[in-house]
Q: What sequence folds into this?
């Protein structure tokens, strides 16, 4: 990825977010640690299923012999690499659920092998023979869970005999070993004490796993973490925090029909008290998850069990959990603006800060150490401003690999764009005025992006109140003095709304930055991509049906996170998914239909601002977290991991 291209992407992102984003709120972080070199984690994505198959307690059409074929079919149809089942009971004199499942899923002509821990209701763990094998060095076992109730208590039977089955599995494609756990917690809303004690014990137990072996945990936990049947119950939250796990699916508000994992209508009920009871969790750091799914397929007019199969993909995380922390001049002020661009030409994005109310309104440059940290910030002389409406940009418009400083304010001079060429040492030269793109309108917005693919950031001018909302491109001329060609107006995708956010990033990987627009009130809140032809034209390419938002406080970012040359889509809103970012990788012609959840540096604060840039110079943009009310205003860098 070219330095000039990344610089301009970040400038566009900063302008889209704006300097004021609400009042401070609680900030929740994960994975604060020491910096370490970005490297491939070695993990390969695999699919996990948890499925409460319901024990052989029913009669008639719901009796196990009448359901078992459909249960086995659902497991085979979903082709998960690891499957954990609950309620696989074998009562005396009754049908044997574990025997039937093992017969239907394992054997020379079947795809699965099984770990069967035994016991009254064994938590079987199936794994694809083509993908996983037992990892003897990790071990296997069946851990009994505590029953905190007296034998005379109503909840005693609901909590009795609960266990955690666990087994070490080695991925045959990567050589990585995993600690896989499967459980079933106490049921009934009144038995929250049992679940809380079970979560506490499970968290303690998982902490004893072999060091460095990631955990994948699943099961029927009999509580809805985000729409609790028992007010104040924190079973899932306690398990996450105690064992440092992350659930694969998060949502906001009351559980609806699309989020429920329990089939309310199993026994003919018309209740709308939907519940998510089944979860898949995993350790963080090197792992994250994507594409959670709930299989509601019916057979004979009903689902094969009163629980739906729940699936998720466990995959390498985009960012390492450890972060670096670096002081920012005026970092505790909400009026400070940050920019990230490579002003020295070493391939690592540097940090620039500006606050109109601090000092003389100078910019400060902290040169990247290329390890996730920055050298102490140095004040720039010249090109200062104490006017808060001034806009700064940092992009390489000359093609020398060093981002130049750009200043514009509609009331300054004749509205010309002022460029200060980079000296490639963190300082900038004398002003060069660009008059052909001048504007005195507050509604004008400028972007600097390499839309031609020649290594120089071109100037794009847009004013929704002028030219029918058309975009105008001024192609940069390579050379020591900043200059641009004649205006080229694009007839594709004009936009006359002041509420439209505009971004530039290379979505299709052809080295030319494309135009992306989003407006919460247009096209159902979809992001729309207009592909750059390299000559100032941007024909419509596609609209992304997933990751839509009609909420004005949503924020989108576009950056190449995995180093494949294509900019991925990042969606974040502090009140959505409990402050986690949702990442939609780019396939060139489209973004993924399901997001990857990012559990690093998450935040529920409107005052948090995120940036994406190659801080350490390795492929893949790193993530920068900054909140003026947290960490004394310092910036945190979460470095990209190689896929």
A:
């Amino acid at each position: 990825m070219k330095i000039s291209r990344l610089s301009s992407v970040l400038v566009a992102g900063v302008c889209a977010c704006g300097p004021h984003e609400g009042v401070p709120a609680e900030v929740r972080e994960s994975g604060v640690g020491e910096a370490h070199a970005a490297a491939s984690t070695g993990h390969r994505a695999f699919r996990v299923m948890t499925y409460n198959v319901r024990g052989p307690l029913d009669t008639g059409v719901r009796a196990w012999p009448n359901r078992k074929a459909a249960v086995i079919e659902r497991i085979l149809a979903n082709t998960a690499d690891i499957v954990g089942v609950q309620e696989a009971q074998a009562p005396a004199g009754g049908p044997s659920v574990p025997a039937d499942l093992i017969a239907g899923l394992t054997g020379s002509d079947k795809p699965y092998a099984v770990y069967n821990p035994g016991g009254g209701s064994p938590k079987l763990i199936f794994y694809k023979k083509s993908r996983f094998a037992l990892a003897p060095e990790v071990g296997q076992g069946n851990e009994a869970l505590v029953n905190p109730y007296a034998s005379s208590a109503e909840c005693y039977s609901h909590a009795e005999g609960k266990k955690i089955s666990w087994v070490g599995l080695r991925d045959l494609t990567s050589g990585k070993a995993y600690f896989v756990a499967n459980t079933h917690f106490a049921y009934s809303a009144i038995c929250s004490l049992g679940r809380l004690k079970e979560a506490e014990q499970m968290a303690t137990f998982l902490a004893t796993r072999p060091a460095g072996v990631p955990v994948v945990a699943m099961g029927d936990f009999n509580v809805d973490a985000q729409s609790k049947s028992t007010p104040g119950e924190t079973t899932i939250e306690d398990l996450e925090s105690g064992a440092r796990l992350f659930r694969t699916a998060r949502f906001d508000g009351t559980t609806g029909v699309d989020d429920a994992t329990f089939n309310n209508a199993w026994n003919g009920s018309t209740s709308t008290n939907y519940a998510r009871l089944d979860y898949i969790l995993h350790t963080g750091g090197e792992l994250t998850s994507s594409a959670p799914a709930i299989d509601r397929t019916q057979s004979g007019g009903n689902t094969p069990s009163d629980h739906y199969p729940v699936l998720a993909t466990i995959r390498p995380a985009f960012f390492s959990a450890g972060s670096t922390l670096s002081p920012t001049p005026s970092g505790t002020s909400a009026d400070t603006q940050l920019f990230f661009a490579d002003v020295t030409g070493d391939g690592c994005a540097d940090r620039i800060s500006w606050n109109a109310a601090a000092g003389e309104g100078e910019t400060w440059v902290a040169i990247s150490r290329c390890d996730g940290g920055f050298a102490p910030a140095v004040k720039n002389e010249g090109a200062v401003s104490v006017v808060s409406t001034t806009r700064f940009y940092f992009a390489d418009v000359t093609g020398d690999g060093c981002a130049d400083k750009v200043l514009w304010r509609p009331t300054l001079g004749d509205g010309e764009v002022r460029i200060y060429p980079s000296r490639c040492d963190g300082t900038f030269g004398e002003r060069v005025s660009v008059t052909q793109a001048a504007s005195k309108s507050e509604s004008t917005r400028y972007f600097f992006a390499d839309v031609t693919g020649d290594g120089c950031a071109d100037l794009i001018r847009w004013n929704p109140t002028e030219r029918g909302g058309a975009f105008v491109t001024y192609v940069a001329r390579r050379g020591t003095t900043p200059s641009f060609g004649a205006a080229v107006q694009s007839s594709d995708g004009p936009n006359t709304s002041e509420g439209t956010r505009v971004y530039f990033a290379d979505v299709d990987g052809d080295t030319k930055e494309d135009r992306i627009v989003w407006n919460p009130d247009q096209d159902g809140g979809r992001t729309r991509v207009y592909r750059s032809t390299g000559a100032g034209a941007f024909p419509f390419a596609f609209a992304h049906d997933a990751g839509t938002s009609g909420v004005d406080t949503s924020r989108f970012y576009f950056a190449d996170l995995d180093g494949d040359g294509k900019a991925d889509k990042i969606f974040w809103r502090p009140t959505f998914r409990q402050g986690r970012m949702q990442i939609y990788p780019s396939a060139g012609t489209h973004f993924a239909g399901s997001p990857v959840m990012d559990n690093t540096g998450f935040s529920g604060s409107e005052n948090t601002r995120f940036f994406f840039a190659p801080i350490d110079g390795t492929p893949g943009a790193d993530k920068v977290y900054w909140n003026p009310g947290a960490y004394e205003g310092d910036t945190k860098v979460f470095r990209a991991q190689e896929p």
